[in-house]
Design goal:
There is one protein chain. Helices cover 25% and strands 26% of the residues. The protein is built from eight helices and 18 strands. Strands 1, 8, 9, 10, 11, 12, 15, 16, 17 and 18 form a ten-stranded mixed beta sheet that branches.
């Protein structure tokens, strides 16, 4: 996760929030002397989230803070934590006194109580962790993942996102920051904690999102766009549109096979989709894939230039056809040979010059080295994924014209 909707409007609101705090000397909204500026430490993160209720043009502002500044779980003008404060305090009271008593005994020389205190502390922390609840894009509730670092779920931005999802408000922008030298110092959501929750909460793993486009890391097994029938509606574009209903329903600028994982570009606006779709058609987008191919390839690199088309008698298979097929060109580079379960595979990098359906899968199979796990053109065992990943993409931003690039390491 690199940046999630850190829009210009959200950053401007963060600057207003910073100025208001420094001017009043109070963290709360409205200012209150019980919540002085001194509550903020060097590690305290603040956030502001812009959101829009359903069927409304009014923009709402949510504010968040991380941790418990000055021991406060809640501060006026900010969203609450991702747990019930009453249940939290009740759970703390159940074990806190005994833990303090054991600590006093240990400090007085009774080291035999260390194991009991450690056990009771672990039990208390487990009970507290179970109180966290997070809302997802489709209205489900999820808990903290097992073995999540302590403090997961306490980040300022995540609290705002959780509140917006519970209210069913559409997220328009998010800025997360610390106050440094009288200015907001912006930071993206953290990988170590927020990264454990946000992909499930948002439905997709967002590497980047602004007011025009989003770049997500699509998992293998998820459709890019809905298929035919209600049982195939779940897809990257469906999840995106559920989270951002103002986006066009057909928000994808290109597609990845369901079995292929990796970088997928989605659009918040029709203008952005149209611009990027044209860029893809004109081969102005650079894409790279990583794959594991069956067998050993000795050549260092090469070019596969074999036209392909749909096998109309055996859909969805694609076949080589030098007369009626569409031009398909794949440049490849060998990265190395690996041994998995006693069998040898070659890791390659693909640089497709065209974007035909199943192009990389068909070209690999036609050379005698199908992609590992390919259920259509190779061999596949139950539960095995296709070892093909969209690892790199670069293009010109549809609004700013800036050249931008994204990468994602292969998960195999």
């Amino acid at each position: 996760m690199i940046s999630f909707l850190e829009t210009r409007e959200a950053k401007m609101e963060a600057e207003k929030m910073t100025k208001a705090i420094l001017t009043s000397g109070s963290v709360s909204f409205p200012p209150d002397g019980n919540y002085p500026l001194s509550l903020l430490s060097d590690k305290t993160m603040l956030s502001v989230l812009l959101a829009k209720p359903q069927s409304s043009k009014e923009v709402k502002i949510l504010r968040g803070f991380s941790g418990t500044p000055g021991g406060f779980y809640t501060i006026p003008g900010y969203v609450g934590p991702c747990f019930s404060v009453a249940e939290w305090e009740k759970t703390v009271r159940e074990n806190d006194r005994e833990i303090h008593e054991l600590t006093a005994m240990i400090e007085n020389g009774d080291t035999s109580q260390k194991e009991k205190r450690a056990s009771l502390t672990a039990e208390s922390l487990k009970a507290l962790s179970s109180l966290y609840s997070f809302r997802t894009y489709n209205g489900r509730n999820i808990s903290l993942p097992d073995r999540a670092p302590w403090g997961t779920g306490d980040c300022a931005g995540l609290r705002c996102i959780n509140t917006a999802l519970r209210k069913k408000w559409e997220i328009l922008g998010l800025a997360e920051f610390r106050i440094r030298d009288s200015k907001p110092e912006f930071h993206p959501p953290c990988e170590s904690r927020c990264g454990l929750l946000l992909p499930d909460m948002l439905g997709l793993d967002y590497l980047y999102a602004d007011s025009s486009i989003a770049v997500v890391d699509k998992p293998s097994g998820l459709l890019s766009v809905p298929g035919r029938g209600e049982d195939k509606i779940d897809s990257a574009t469906y999840r995106f549109h559920m989270l951002f209903p103002s986006s066009p329903p057909e928000c994808n600028c290109h597609r990845l096979d369901m079995d292929t994982s990796g970088l997928l570009v989605l659009a918040f606006t029709r203008e952005a989709k149209r611009t990027l779709s044209i860029a893809f058609e004109n081969h102005e987008v650079r894409k790279e894939y990583e794959a594991l191919l069956e067998g050993v390839i000795t050549e260092e690199n090469g070019i596969i230039d074999i036209p392909i088309r749909l096998d109309t008698d055996n859909r969805p298979y694609q076949i080589a056809d030098y007369e009626k097929g569409k031009k398909a060109v794949t440049v490849w580079k060998r990265l190395g040979v690996e041994v998995i379960d006693g069998r040898k595979y070659t890791r390659v990098r693909f640089y497709p010059e065209t974007g035909r359906t199943h192009q990389l899968r068909v070209h690999s199979a036609l050379t005698g080295h199908p992609i590992k796990g390919d259920r259509l053109y190779g061999t596949h065992t139950e539960g095995e994924r296709l070892m093909l990943h969209a690892a790199f993409i670069s293009f010109r931003h549809p609004e700013t014209g800036e050249d931008i690039a994204f990468s994602s390491p292969a998960p195999f």
